[in-house]
Amino acid sequence: MFELGAEQLQIQSLARDFARGEILPGAMERDQTHEFPADIIRQLGEMGFLGMFMPPEYGGAGVDLLSYVVALEQICYADAGVGVVMSVNNSLVCWPILAFGTEDQRQRYLADVSTGAKLGCYALTEANAGSDAGAQRTRCVRDGDDYVLNGTKMWITNGPQADIAITYANLDPDQRHKTVCAFIVETDSPGFKVGKVEEKLGITCSSTSELIYEDLRVPVANRISEEKEGFRIAMSTLDGGRIGIAAQSLGIAQRAFDLAVAYAKEREAFGKPIGKQQAIQWMIADMACRIESARLLTYKAAELKGRGVAASHACSMAKLMASEAANFCADRALQIHGGYGYSKEYEVERLYRDARITTIYEGTSEIQRMVIARNFLQ
Predict the structure, then answer these.
(1) Over the stretch 240-276, which tens digit does the pLDDT of each residue have?
(2) φ, ψ for residue 289, nearest 5 deg
(3) What SS3 class is residue 120?
(4) Which domains does the chain possess?
(5) Which of 95, 54, 24 minimizes the C-alpha distance to 252?
(6) What value does the CA radius of gyration of the chain take, rounded to a whole number of Å?
(7) Could you tell me the pTM of the whole model?
(8) Which residues are the active-site residues?
(9) Closest C-alpha among 226, 222, 216 to residue 179
(10) d(Cα 319, Cα 364) in Å, to the nearest integer?
(11) In degrees to the nearest 10, what's the CA dihedral of 91, 145, 229, 192?
(12) Please, is 199 exposed, middle or buried when counting C-beta atoms within 10 Å of its C-beta (0-12, 13-18, 19+)?
């Protein structure tokens, strides 16, 4: 049996209280208005939730990766749109600077991003570089003490609000992944602008946009690691990102399950609560088993990566199973609610839409299966 430690349980409780007291009450309204939760994100920063596994000397909370996972699950139980902002800032922005950046870069950026004074985004995806992340067409050209970047990124979470963008660009796109570089781009730089802001099916309070780079100059001092190391950095970073999306998926799945159980106890049909019907009981049982299985895989992946163990396949297993559990549970919760579940007045309708993205971003389910299989076939 996997048991959380005292500190992890304390963090879980803190996150649960904040999520259910401050985030959940406004989740349905944010889903309709698409308003970015700036005040909530500020509070998460003040609580130490935006740089959870960053060392205290860089403004972080200094907790382990599993503590981050249990906190993120609670935040996403209330609103997965809020949770993905937290996930990106921790896993995709803070972590690569800590792991691959210079001491100067850590000193200049981590404290502000870890505390929420500034927000970050992860600019990898392009129109033709999604699952095929090596197909980066955004160019970087060395010019003295700068690089000049030109290109467009898309589907960038936190894009409209970000103060820094972890950006991947290619010295020679014909060489694909072999010549990709990683940069810390300050979004107030000349030549940077936010393009189209997407209207999405779910997680609507999380902003997603194009980012456009037009002759943007970024100092050599803002390159992360050496030239041509960008693809390795991106792939390593995505392992942590996948754990974050697994935690997000658990939050969605658990909320769907709890709502389904409550409804099955109170809704009556044929003279008794529908939870007395075998068909409903089987759905509840299947949901519970999938959540628990996914949670154990996610906790295991966090524990392994937190100890510095090679864990790409474990991260992919967690992300695959948790995201598919979220979609399964949201679907069954809607079915249990019947016609009411199809109405926007009921929360399960929002969960059904929010769950759908989890099998797509941070690597589709098909990509996760490829990563897992390669671990055994290489």
Answers:
(1) 899 999 999 999 999 999 999 999 999 999 999 999 9
(2) -65, -40
(3) strand
(4) 6-119 (1.10.540.10), 121-228 (2.40.110.10), 231-377 (1.20.140.10)
(5) 24
(6) 21
(7) 0.96
(8) 362
(9) 226
(10) 9
(11) 50
(12) exposed
